[in-house]
Amino acid sequence: MNYAAVMAGGSGSRMGITDVPKQFLSLDGLPIIIHTLKIFAACDEIAKTVVMCPNAWVDYTRNLIDKHLSDCGGKIYVAPGGATRNETLEKSVDYICRNFNVDDDSVIVTHDAVRPFVTAQMISENIKYASQYAACNTVIEATDTVVMSADGEFIDSSPDRCTVFNCQTPQSFRLGEYLDSLGKLEKNKRDALTDACSLFTLTGKKVYMARGSVDNIKITRPADIQTAENILKNLK
């Protein structure tokens, strides 16, 4: 069976707010996180979804789900995340292992709560390629030239843009491969990870690149809300 972990641990700092995490801001009359969870709740390939949110917002998140997704048939659970993205990821895997029927071939699809334009096709392709390989990352081709700089002041090199891709989510993996890679990495390196797929590249495992979409934006700053509203308008 396949499971999803939706990462909802972000704050509203880059939105210029401090009292409400960005995933709970309104988008077309609904909290951003609800738009995201609707896609996972409707996906037949996902057995259960666990939402990882700040401890202080667990009850609030559950109440939102009860209000807006009461018909999801008990597919969505809420649990407290960690202090970092990687700690939250590890906690989500632990929660899934303790509470659901998993084996080494179970695929876990991880996704940002503030990417509400994930599609069923992206989720399905993540499951397909994570099942075939160790892991799968959702990417789009880079449209800007990227430069490398060791000191942050002078350009050292510029890689061929054809070989550069921007990472999105979902990021997915087979459970057995994740646990194996996690056991091979020292704690200091584990703590430095910034996303799910870095673990696999660091331990020499192949990560397949599934194609994302320019619409699959991460809502981080105030201008992103307007962009998201325009995307929604075009989807209707």
3D architecture notes:
The protein has 236 residues and is an alpha/beta fold. The chain has a single domain (3-227), classed as Spore Coat Polysaccharide Biosynthesis Protein SpsA, Chain A, CATH 3.90.550.10. Helix content is 35%, strand content 20%. It is built from 8 helices and 9 strands. The strands form 2 sheets. Strands 5-4-1-6-8-7-9 form a 7-stranded mixed beta sheet, sandwiched between helices. The longest helix has 15 residues, at 85-99. The protein is globular. It starts with a strand and ends with a helix.
CATH fold field value: Spore Coat Polysaccharide Biosynthesis Protein SpsA, Chain A
Largest sheet: 7 strands, mixed
CATH architecture: Alpha-Beta Complex
Q: How many distinct helices? A: 8
Highest CATH level, the class: Alpha Beta
Radius of gyration: 18 Å
Strand order of the largest sheet: 5-4-1-6-8-7-9
CATH superfamily (homologous) name: Spore Coat Polysaccharide Biosynthesis Protein SpsA, Chain A
The structural class is: alpha/beta
* SSE pattern, N- to C-terminal: EEEHEHEHEHEEHHHEH
Helix proportion range: 25-40%
What's the mean pLDDT score? Answer: 93
| Sequence stretches where pLDDT stays below 50 over 5 or more residues | none
Strand content: 15-25%
Shape: globular
Question: What are the salient characteristics of this protein?
Answer:
single chain, 236 residues, alpha/beta, Spore Coat Polysaccharide Biosynthesis Protein SpsA, Chain A, seven-stranded mixed β-sheet, 8 helices
